[in-house]
Amino acid sequence: MISILTAGVVGLVVSILGTPLAIRWLVGRGYGQAIRDELSENHQTKRGTPTMGGAVIIVAAVLAYFVAHLVRPSPPTVSGLLVLFLIVGLGVVGFLDDWIKISKQRSLGLRSRAKMAGQVAVAVVFAILAINFPDEQGYTPASQALSVLRETSWMLPAAVFVLWALFLISGFSNAVNLTDGLDGLATGASVMVFGAYTLIGVWQLNQSCGVSPGPSCYEVRDPLDLAVVSAAMVGACFGFLWWNAAPAKIFMGDTGSLALGGGLAGLAITTRTELLLVVLGGLFVLITLSVMLQVGWFKISGGKRLFRMAPLQHHFELKGWGEVTIVIRFWIIAGMFVVLGLGLFYAEWVATA
Q1: C-beta separation of 233 from 61 below 8 A
Q2: How many distinct structural domains can be found in the chain?
Q3: 183 annotated binding-site participant
Q4: For the chain, what is the HEC assignment?
Q5: For residue 20, is it within any domain?
Q6: In the predicted model, is pLDDT for residue 41 greater than 60?
Q7: 42 is in an annotated binding site
Q8: For the chain, percent of residues with pLDDT exceeding 90
Q9: What is the pTM assigned to this prediction?
């Protein structure tokens, strides 16, 4: 528990103190966000706000993780390092995308194929490594068994598991990216889901088969260290939110959104709660579905729009809702999904105990 608290506090302190330094450095070099022309006038006023702030979240979380291991001396685990690899790797892909945007002052960065290639490379390396490195009990960081609230009996061939992991990682990294359209929206929602995975990691540690054997025990490798990673991300996101809340002084950019989404998918895979992430991250799923529905309806209806604009938050913005109102209401929705997800997780344990 000391490691978890240390990770959260260090992540918060580094992020809340490091972000204004990043703001000054980015502003001094004119690294501002380009804004799509079709967005509202409120968004046009944000043109030039420094971006790539997600790098602060990543640095704060990684530093917090290693400080936590120094405070309570213990070696980092394979599971924790793999999730951090996913966060950093996707952050690098996002950083390249952001860099092209600001250097060329356009709203589009990496070409879609190059961006997807980067995401695929990071995700595939993670997935292959995650089904190796068994511990003394034979547990690997990830399981080839499909998981909902825990492992099921559906075993996937290694190649199929890699494709499944790729789908989850690319899907959620892009889902958080789509959600990152209003000040503080994606950051605040991510805090809640990472917080949920902190609780899940602690619960799985206390109810692990090595500690509390029985029909309801969890066969998860390194649940404590996964909780440390989650807590580090909670603290880092909280600190960044201080500066990212409306009116935002800095944006996380694709650097942050891809990293956060990848981190959530990595935690879902390593805690054996892959499909539970769809509930815990329900807000991200809804916003992604709004884009898919908009595109699909536009094609089958001959050019008509289902929403005034997609993603969904911009639809309500064009309807006249204030930005802060949208963000707070979407945070409430995100919180309800997290509560529902944790309730399902606990109810399943009670039912099998």
Answers
A1: yes
A2: 1
A3: no
A4: CHHHHHHHHHHHHHHHHHHHHHHHHHHHCCCECCCCCCCCHHHHCCCCCECCCHHHHHHHHHHHHHHHHHHCCCCCCHHHHHHHHHHHHHHHHHHHHHHHHHHHCCCCCCCHHHHHHHHHHHHHHHHHHHCCCCCCCCCCCCCCEEECCCEEEEECCHHHHHHHHHHHHHHHHHHHHHHCCCCCHHHHHHHHHHHHHHHHHHHHHHCECCCCCCCCCECCCCHHHHHHHHHHHHHHHHHHHHHHCCCCCCCCHHHHHHHHHHHHHHHHHHCCCCCHHHHHCHHHHHHHHHHHHHHHHHHHCCCCCCCCCCCHHHHHHHCCCCHHHHHHHHHHHHHHHHHHHHHHHHHHHHHHC
A5: yes
A6: no
A7: no
A8: 77
A9: 0.94
213-232 burial: b if 16+ Cβ within 10 Å, else e: eeeebbbbbbbbbbbbbbbb
Q: What is the pLDDT of residues 49-81, one digit of tens each?
A: 888 999 999 999 999 999 999 998 889 999 999
Sole residue written with tokens 């309801």: 216
343 burial class (0-12, 13-18, 19+ CB within 10 angstroms)?
exposed
Domain with 213, as residue range(s), is 2-281
Spatial distance between the Cα atoms of 101 and 341, rounded to a whole number of angstroms: 36
Backbone angles phi, psi at 193, to 5 degrees: -70, -40
Alpha-carbon distances, residue 1 vs 8, 174, 233, 237 (angstroms): 11, 32, 16, 20
Assign 100 a pLDDT band (cuts: 50, 70, 90).
Answer: confident
What's at 310, amino acid-wise? A
Read off the tokens for 304: 């008509």
Please, are residues 33 and 48 in contact by the beta-carbon 8 Å criterion? yes
Q: Which residue has the tokens 């022309």?
A: 37
> Does the residue 277 lie in any domain?
yes
- Joined together, the tokens standing for residue 337 give 């999904």
Alpha carbon separation from 9 to 57, 81, 127 (Å, rounded): 13, 20, 30
13 within a domain of the structure (yes/no): yes
For residue 328, is it within any domain? no
